[in-house]
Design brief:
The structure holds two protein chains of two kinds.
Chain A: E1 4-7, E2 10-13, E3 18-25, E4 31-37, E5 44-50, E6 53-57, E7 64-70, E8 73-79, E9 87-94, E10 106-107, E11 111-115
Parallel strand pairs in A: 2-11
Antiparallel strand pairs in A: 1-3, 3-8, 4-5, 4-9, 5-6, 7-8, 9-10, 9-11
Chain B: E1 4-6, E2 11-14, E3 19-25, E4 32-38, E5 45-50, E6 54-58, E7 61-66, E8 71-76, E9 85-92, E10 102-103, E11 107-112
Parallel strand pairs in B: 2-11
Antiparallel strand pairs in B: 1-3, 3-8, 4-5, 4-9, 6-7, 7-8, 9-10, 9-11
Classes of the chains: A mainly beta, B mainly beta.
Chain lengths: 116, 113
């Protein structure tokens, strides 16, 4: 495995379900990110972990819960989502810890989430 | 006013044409400018990065920054069908981390053979 891998690639869930998205980076990077990508909207940063500690939480609803057990893995736990949460969820990593502005993020292929 | 404005397109051009993709931004504090390319069903990948006004070339791609107008452009010469993708501009400020990247909406580009 190389780069940033995300599973599952597609997920359909009801509003009362609990599911999790998984991200793994094989690049030895120090920071990991969750982004939400919706049609016709800019990428929205949700969470940032730097050296396994959360450094940024952009006022994301509590129905999204991140977990970063180590520097290579990142999870997004989903609970009682709404239909408007349907989107592509992208995981990214960067070599430098959050706080460096090199701008190079390495993205996974995303998890396409549909909430019914 | 949005911090970054980008026409979402879609934009369709014939193979071999020169493509111009553009973004405008509102905050003069932004100093780092990036273009990401996102193929269908893939994540974005960094295409070009610059931090100064002027032009930066990489093969068929040229990134142009005009800080006085707060305007950035990406030019693609001799466009190929393989260039069909969504192109996202991203900007940042000094001493602000990657988490402070501000993205445009992305322009969906199709190169017609």
């Amino acid at each position: 495995e190389t780069g940033v891998t995300q599973t599952p690639r597609h997920l359909v869930m009801g509003m009362t379900n609990k599911k999790s998205l998984k991200c793994e980076q094989h690049l030895g990077h120090n920071a990991m990110y969750w982004y939400k990508q919706s049609a016709k909207k800019p990428l929205e940063l949700m969470f940032v972990y730097s050296l396994e500690e959360r450094v940024e939480n952009n006022s994301v609803p509590s129905r999204f819960s991140p977990e970063c057990p180590n520097s290579s893995h990142l999870f997004l736990h989903l609970h009682t989502l709404q239909p408007e949460d349907s989107a592509l969820y992208l995981c990214a990593s960067s070599q430098d810890p959050a706080g460096s502005s090199t701008g190079e993020l390495f993205f996974g292929e995303g998890s396409r989430l549909t909430v019914l | 006013q949005k911090e970054v404005e980008q026409d979402p397109g879609p934009l369709s051009v014939p193979e071999g044409a020169i493509v111009s993709l553009n973004c405008t931004y509102s905050n003069s504090a932004f100093q780092y400018f990036m273009w990401y390319r996102q193929y269908s069903r893939k994540g974005p990948e960094l295409l070009m990065y610059t931090y100064s006004s002027g032009n930066k070339e990489d093969g068929r791609f040229t990134a142009q920054v005009d800080k006085s107008s707060k305007y950035i452009s990406l030019f693609i010469r001799d466009s190929q069908p393989s260039d069909s993708a969504t192109y996202l501009c991203a900007i940042s400020r000094p001493n602000f981390g990657n988490e402070k990247l501000t993205f445009g909406t992305g322009t969906r580009l199709t190169i017609i053979p």
